């Protein structure tokens, strides 16, 4: 199975790219969605977050107050580190579960839309690593517009991630989303051709048929050698 890592900075356009790929029939695992489920009331993640931030972080209905938590962690690196340590193991497990479901179904290509792919060192598990890049001024403008936030709030969020230029340096494929949507769609089409190319031997070996074949061969070998 081919796991394509799709990452970038906040509001650089990851969802725009993944939505387009999904509309063309490619399955997408969205880490922001997985992270939300991982923090639902009374889950393991919720308990870990409440253990760190206290019950004061909850709304009246018992769910985590995301706006308040965001205000805290995007303005305080130490608190952000605490949240990351509490919730990221739960996110990783959630992502693993999503990948496993696709693996069982025999899906050939899965787009892993993970904002913190490189920060969480998951880039080593995906190939190719695709970085959706924008210039800083465009990123700030799009983020303030989308979230209806101030420039200070937008900058705090942008600066809480690895600089986008560094992510671009670590990419196997870069989508420059600073221009028009049409421009980006052309780049997505080229990416689609690349990632839907026939599987490599390594990918075949890790497919469910590959693993079944290797296990069968191993069992046969062990039985012969006895
Ligand atoms: C702090 C929270 C509650 C704020 O929620 P909110 O609904 O306002 O934002 P949302 O979840 O939609 O995230 C928006 C974007 O913020 C960025 N972001 C989220 N968490 C982090 C983080 N810990 N560090 C840096 N950037 C982050 C991502 O680019 C993400 O796409 C939420 O982002 C969260 O639970 N973060 C921790 C989980 C996490 O690491 N998520 C990223 C998935 S890999
Ligand atoms: N090429 C483009 N031209 C104009 N607007 C764009 C373009 N690409 C994305 N946008 C807009 O910029 C905003 C951010 O895009 P998007 O939500 O896809 O980013 P993201 O990287 O998924 O963000 P997040 O990290 O918060 O999940 C959205 O409002 C989107 O409509």
What hetero molecules are in the model?
dephospho coenzyme A, adenosine-5'-triphosphate
What is the first-to-last residue Cα distance? 33 Å
Structural class category? alpha/beta
Counting DSSP E segments of at least 2 residues, the number of strands comes to 5
**Helix amount:** 55-70%
Shape: globular
The whole-number mean of residue pLDDT values reads 96
* Low-confidence parts: none
Radius of gyration, taken over Cα atoms and rounded to an integer in Å: 20 Å
**How much strand?**
5-15%
Could you say what the CATH architecture of the largest domain is? 3-Layer(aba) Sandwich
The count of domains is 2
Just give the CATH class of the largest domain.
Answer: Alpha Beta
Major sheet size, sense and barrel closure: 5 strands, parallel
| Total DSSP helices | 11
Order of helices and strands: EHEHHHHEEHHHEHHH
CATH topology heading of the largest domain: Rossmann fold
Please, what is the CATH homologous superfamily of the largest domain?
P-loop containing nucleotide triphosphate hydrolases
Biggest β-sheet: strands ordered side by side in the sheet: 2-3-1-4-5
């Amino acid at each position: 199975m081919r796991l394509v890592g799709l990452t970038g900075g906040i509001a650089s356009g990851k969802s725009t790219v993944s939505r387009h790929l999904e509309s063309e029939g490619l399955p997408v695992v969205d880490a922001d969605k997985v992270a939300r489920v991982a923090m639902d009331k009374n889950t393991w993640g919720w308990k870990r977050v409440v253990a760190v931030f206290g019950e004061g972080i909850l709304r009246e209905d018992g769910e985590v107050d995301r706006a308040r938590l965001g205000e805290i962690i995007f303005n305080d690196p130490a608190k952000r580190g605490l949240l990351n340590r509490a919730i990221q193991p739960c996110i990783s497990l959630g992502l693993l579960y999503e990948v496993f479901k696709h693996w069982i179904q025999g899906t050939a290509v899965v787009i892993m839309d993970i904002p913190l792919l490189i920060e969480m060192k998951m880039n080593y598990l995906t190939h190719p690593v695709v970085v959706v890049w924008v210039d800083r001024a465009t990123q700030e403008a799009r983020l303030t517009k989308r979230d209806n936030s101030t420039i200070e709030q937008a900058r705090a969020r942008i600066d809480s991630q690895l600089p986008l230029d560094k992510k671009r340096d670590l990419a196997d494929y870069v989508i420059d989303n600073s221009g028009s949507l049409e421009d980006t769609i052309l780049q997505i089409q080229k990416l689609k051709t690349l990632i839907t190319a026939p599987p490599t031997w390594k990918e075949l070996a890790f497919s469910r048929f590959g693993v079944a074949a290797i296990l069968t061969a191993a069992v046969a070998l062990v039985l012969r050698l006895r």
